Amino acid sequence: MSLTILEQRSGRLPAELTSFIGRADELAEITRLFGRGRLVTLVGPGGVGKSRLAVRAAGRVLPGYEHGVCFVDLAPLREPSLLAPALAGALGLPDPNAGTVLDVLVEFLAERRTLLVLDTCEHLVDACALLAEVLLRNAPGLHILATSRQPLDIAGEHTLNVAPLPIPVGASPDPRRPCESVRMFAERAAAVVPEWRLTPENQDAVVLLCRRLDGIPLALELAAVQLRALSVEQIVDRLDRRVLHVRGRRTAMPRHRTLENAIDWSHDLCSPGERLLWTRLSVFAGDFDLESAEQVCADAELPAGDVFDLLAGLVDKSIVRQVTRDGEARYRMLDTIREYGAERLDRRGEAGGVRDRAFAWFAGRVERAHAELASSAQPRVLAWFRDEQDNVRALIDHGIGAAADGPLIRAGLGLGRILALQGLIGEARYWSARILACRDLGGDPAATELIALAGLLAVLQNDLAASADLLERAEARASGTGDDAGLAYVRQAQGMAALYDDRTDEAVRLLTEATVLHRAAGADDVLVPIADLFLSVACCLGGDTATALEHAERAVAVTEGSGDLWCRSYGLLARGTARLLAGAADEALADVRAGLAVKRDLGDRLGVSLALDVAGGCLVSLAQPMQAARLFGCADRLRRYTGSTMFGPQHALLRGFFEQQAGEALGADAYRTAYETGESLETDIAVAEALAERPAPDAPGARPDRPALTPREREIAGLVAAGLTNREIADRLVIAKRTADSHVEHILAKLGFSSRAEIVAWVAAER
């Protein structure tokens, strides 16, 4: 990835931080190729500018795609089986069952006109090829722009070889019309050393440098950084000596060799400590913080107290770049530079040891996070995981093959919970299954709990056969060792399975036993209050709303005391359900809205789908059937994507009752229209309607007359709706941030809005 692309996480196009040089012919060719086919792959060596070109090309064609562009950075991903789930996440889809994720993607994309940018495919080329082929065959409006060091090699693929920037030709190039490689070096050099300018005196050296570096953008950027300490003439001299020294022993293609020579040369300019840190930082799959760098990279040879100064030196040399997450400094290496460091780490014979240390650090962090999940620290823990998930995935994968049993199993327990709390049930099952398959678990009580967790996750995806096998295995282990704490989790999962299987009386018995065992063990885990939640649901299904309310109240009270927002919000939804069935729809809707707001803030998509269902039931009882039908439609779409529902398939009985009432109130045709509108409604819009933050279409004031926006204001409103900050908007449009601030303020004032969320809703409604 280019040094000049802003780090992104969400599926939107990254903002470009520096000027885009040249590539007019390539941009035109990409447009032409998309006129001939629906898959274009940009092919070339690392550092040649494929990612930057893809981002610029996608930005140019964005208006032609009704449903937008989704950018997916595959560089941190190591597991081919996680490719489709990663794409689903980038598209904003809830986590589906691993076995249905392709169906979910096909269904979502089938009727959409979307451009998908798959960046850095080479290490997953077979998986990317299979995924692209399936999606393109089933989604006629889909176009894919891929970047890779080799083609995907599937039918219908058009490839464009991305060459380096043009280099100067002739003995004395015209200084008034510098070629693109010279322009790029000059602009990057001026950014590094503000007073630097391309002059007649240094032009010959710059021309020679661009020729030596074959016009490769990454190599030019690395060279520009050295102007802080060297003149252009000195840079050329050092590079010449490096090239002469290594030429003849490389077997790679010339452009690969040139880039490696440039990185070799940058490596030589680093101090011994910086070189050592560079190699060790290569174990991080994603970005990282200073504490992780100190814990993973330090030892007797590299003291922890030296890491910060050495890291700052690597940042100054553009080997490492700084990124910001929620105001905190984090660091990342480009994929090409990480590979270079990893190769040298292998040569030193340290790769296994440093990765073991990284696994131990992140496994310990996950274990500590697990302990904090049932507390007020929960949002911070989930935010931490979102920052570190690429590293955690990579190191758990390493631990499965190399680490000791105990830390891996405990890390699996924490990871499964963290993923489940974000609605990522499919991925949680994936890692649990891999950990359980790779070890002789012996008599470790934590292993019993991990098996029970795997069984519970299977229940949540209504895979009752798999759940029964796992829970039978866990029960045998717990009973055989007198492990009542582990047996509590088994009984809880068995009770949930019974409820999912319409065995309500058995569910009540098993869940009640689980609550007794949990109390006896003094358990304060985030999963413990779930027993009361499902007891409440079971009682609702049995018609005992008074007892259902008691169980829900207990779950809410316990979680209010602990600070656990995830379970508390589910407790509010369970209490809202009990109150709704008891005839108190107003009180029920207040509970449901409070729970839904938390689910939205936590990013718990599984919980959002449930809350929309219950909110719809409340609105039916409050004589708002059309709004209810819209929420039912959106909830059903989310449920198809998750492959699960938190309160089980029997919850559909309750939903069906209110759906019938709404249909009778509206009439079949009007209900179907409202329902189908809700199915296609963006989740954020549906949530805003359910929370009464945005009036539903048939409510008074839903579409008031608004002053017209100027074309520029409409463009900026669209970027706000795409999730860009004012700084990112300014970078995208090449305007001052103060100008972007002013535009956003004018948009809010014209539309009578007070928040960016209202702009998002307005843009969606206007489309």
From TrEMBL:
Q: What organism does the record attribute this protein to?
A: Actinomadura rubteroloni
Q: What is this protein called?
A: Putative HTH-type transcriptional regulator
| Classification via PANTHER family | HTH-TYPE TRANSCRIPTIONAL REGULATOR RV0890C-RELATED, REGULATOR-RELATED
Signal peptide interval: none
Q: What SUPFAM superfamilies is this protein classified in? A: C-terminal effector domain of the bipartite response regulators, P-loop containing nucleoside triphosphate hydrolases, TPR-like
Q: Which GO terms describe its biological process?
A: regulation of DNA-templated transcription
Q: Gene3D superfamilies under this entry?
A: P-loop containing nucleotide triphosphate hydrolases, Tetratricopeptide repeat domain, Winged helix-like DNA-binding domain superfamily/Winged helix DNA-binding domain
Q: Which GO terms describe its molecular function?
A: DNA binding
What does the organism's lineage look like at the top? Bacteria, Bacillati, Actinomycetota, Actinomycetes, Streptosporangiales
- Please give the InterPro entries that the UniProt record associates with this protein: AAA+_ATPase, HTH_77, P-loop_NTPase, Sig_transdc_resp-reg_C-effctor, TPR-like_helical_dom_sf, Tscrpt_reg_LuxR_C, WH-like_DNA-bd_sf
